[in-house]
Each structure stands twice: as C-alpha cells, then as structure tokens.
Design goal:
This protein has 162 residues and is α/β, with parallel strands linked by helices. The chain contains five helices and four strands, in the order ααββααβαβ. A four-stranded mixed β-sheet has the order 1-3-2-4, with no helix packed on it. The longest helix is centred in the last third of the chain and has 16 residues.
C-alpha cells in the first residue's frame, strides 16, 4: 500500500544526517528558538512531504523554513509561504482548510502532495548544490511511491533545478 511505503520512507528520511551544515543549522535553530516561538516545541529534523498518496498534483518548494517546517515538522506549515500556498490549495479544492499552523491541525490535502527539494532548513534559506544533490534521493523515492502524479508545480528557481 502506498501510504505504508510512504510512512516507511518518512521513518528513514527523518533520521537523515548526510549534510553536516544543514544538520547543525536545523538543530541549532530548534534549540535556540526565536522569541515568538520560544514556548513551541521544534521538530528540528528533516521534513517529509505530505498529502494524498493518490495525488495527481505535486507541489515542490525549496526547503522548510527555519521557524516554519523546521518547527512544525511539516513543509509549508506555520510560515508565510504556507499561508499563501494553503489558501490557494483550499480555494482550488485541494485542501480542507486555508491555513496550517501545526502538524496536527487537521489539514487534509486531496489529490495533492507537497514536498521540497531540500528537507532541512538551510542557513539564509540557501542550500548548496551539493546539499540539493544529496537530498534528491528523498524526492526521487517519494516520486516513485506516487504513481498517480500527472502535474508538477515547482515553486522557485532552485526547486525546479535538475
């Protein structure tokens, strides 16, 4: 079953430590926290994709935000780019609600899968080419488990790079 295979992939992904610079950054951000999120628990691990395992639409962003996905554990969740994306997905009928602030806030995607080119929040929101190349394995593994995909929407220049 696709959802079980995706769960196994996620279990492997969230243990990834292949990029020392990204590991150090994501963990430092999770430990030092900004004032507005000082009382929030931080995920501080690689962030998996999420959505409908039967999705026909794929949305690929650059990377989790340091105080968005790196905090919540879900890509585009709890940050301004996510507010824009989920409002659009909701308006188009792909999401059951227009916002997402936490991993467990009830957001459900229909016929869409959201993921990223890099799985860890990079310093200054700029992963290196080597980090993107290393992370590509996770995106390719996800794509292999989502055979219904028909359309890919890539957000930003780096997300669409080969």
């Amino acid at each position: 079953m696709a959802s079980e295979d995706l769960a196994r992939l996620e279990a492997r992904l969230i243990r990834c430590r292949l990029c020392p610079r990204l590991v150090a950054h994501r963990e430092r951000v999770a430990k030092e926290r900004v004032a507005r999120f000082r009382d929030w628990p931080y995920w501080g691990r690689p962030v998996p994709g999420f959505g409908d395992p039967a999705a026909r639409v794929l949305i690929v962003g650059l990377a989790p935000a340091a105080h968005g996905g790196n905090r919540t554990g879900r890509i585009f969740t709890g940050d301004e780019s996510g507010n824009w994306l989920f409002a659009g997905l909701h308006a188009a009928g792909f999401a059951n609600q227009p916002t997402s602030v936490r991993r467990d806030d009830g957001l459900v995607l229909r016929d869409a899968w959201v993921t990223a080119a890099a799985r860890c929040a990079p310093p200054a929101n700029r992963p290196t080419r080597e980090e993107l190349d290393t992370c590509r394995r996770w995106l390719l593994a996800e794509l292999a488990l989502l055979p219904g995909l028909r359309v890919a929407v890539v957000l930003g220049r780096v997300a669409r790079s080969p």
